[in-house]
Amino acid sequence: MSLRAVREDIARWAEQGDPIAMATLIAVRRSAPLPPGARFAISAAGELSGSISSGCVEGDLHERLSALLGGGAPASVTYGITDEMAAGVGLSCGGEIDILLDHYDPGDPVWHRLWQLQEAGAPGVLLTGAALPTRSRQLLLEPDRSLGTLGSPELDRAARSRVDDWLGRTDARAVELVQDDPDSLVFVESFVPPPRLVIVGATPIGHALCAMAHRTGFEVVVVDPREAFLRPERFPDAASLDPRWPDEAMAALDLDPRTSVVILTHDEKLDEPALETALASRCGYIGLLGGRRTQEQRRAALLARGLDEAACDRIHGPVGLRIGARSPEQIAVSILAQLVALERAP
């Protein structure tokens, strides 16, 4: 479970004044149930939150975190099939994982600022010293500032020099800030606003896609000037509904590389201005509903408007993976699968 997944619980425990200890998965070798960044936290009152391995090692981690709350020092632990404890608490899937064990201090300014960024939907990168974990070795990077320290000015400078690269990624990983220097190992977590999906067309496919995308972490905006279709009760999972024409609505949005645009109206009066606006932006994905004839017609119209072939090649059409989908729900699955596949591509 990610840091976001345990945040509500640890915030509640902190309000109750309960001391908290947290395990963080920082590295995975071969196969493991969860990726780096997974968290497992316990409170002194005995409550649990999150997961590191979907059950394989949590029992042992609970004992170690309890010892930490009893006065123990931050530490690291490795579990794996080659570990001497494999028969008891190793990973049955054959992988190996590294975990940091530490106290969680709600009064730490680094944590306090990270939660502020999360609430504001602003980006940030959290670095935690992984070679010798202590609470003082955390650095929070923002595009224009930093807070905390990794233990030395040299490491802090090395981290700041890479902030732009880290802000462009969403995966968590262990990194050596200085090549071949294990003491410079840090665990890097990029916290960026959720990916955004702009659905043009309050159609049955749009309805199904909105619900699915919301549940997989997208912030969904639905655009359609036909207000009879764009009703809040039809799109309860949308972050916002925009009744303006697509070009006007989309021009008001920052269509950045983490924004996907899916055009589902199947009406040239709406499709063409939506496509033209999306193609003029930096959005990361443009999908268009419709078969081969529709795709050819829209492309010809865009070329007539002055766009070139290279620009039109950005359009994914027909939208979605080819899985034989027929119903609105199945088509929504194919679209969402394509979005996820593109996001995970190296």
The gist of it:
The chain is of the alpha/beta class and 346 residues long.
What can you tell me about this protein's structure?
This protein is α/β, with parallel strands linked by helices and 346 residues long. Helix content is 34%, strand content 25%. The protein is built from twelve helices and 16 strands. The strands form three sheets. The chain has a six-stranded parallel β-sheet, sandwiched between helices. A five-stranded antiparallel β-sheet has the order 3-2-1-5-4, sandwiched between helices. It has a five-stranded antiparallel β-sheet with strand order 8-7-6-10-9, with helices on both faces. A hairpin with a 4-residue loop joins β2 (39-43) and β3 (48-50). α7 crosses α12. Mean pLDDT is 89; it is low at 82-87.
List the helices and strands and how they pair.
Elements: H1 3-15, E1 20-29, E2 39-43, E3 48-50, H2 58-69, E4 75-80, H3 86-89, E5 96-104, H4 109-120, E6 124-129, E7 138-142, E8 145-149, H5 153-160, H6 163-167, E9 172-176, E10 185-191, E11 196-200, H7 204-215, E12 219-223, E13 240-242, H8 246-251, E14 259-263, H9 268-279, E15 285-288, H10 292-304, H11 309-312, E16 315-316, H12 328-344
Helix pairs in contact: 7-12
Provide key terms for this protein.
346 residues, five-stranded antiparallel sheet, six-stranded parallel sheet, 25% strand, 16 strands, alpha/beta
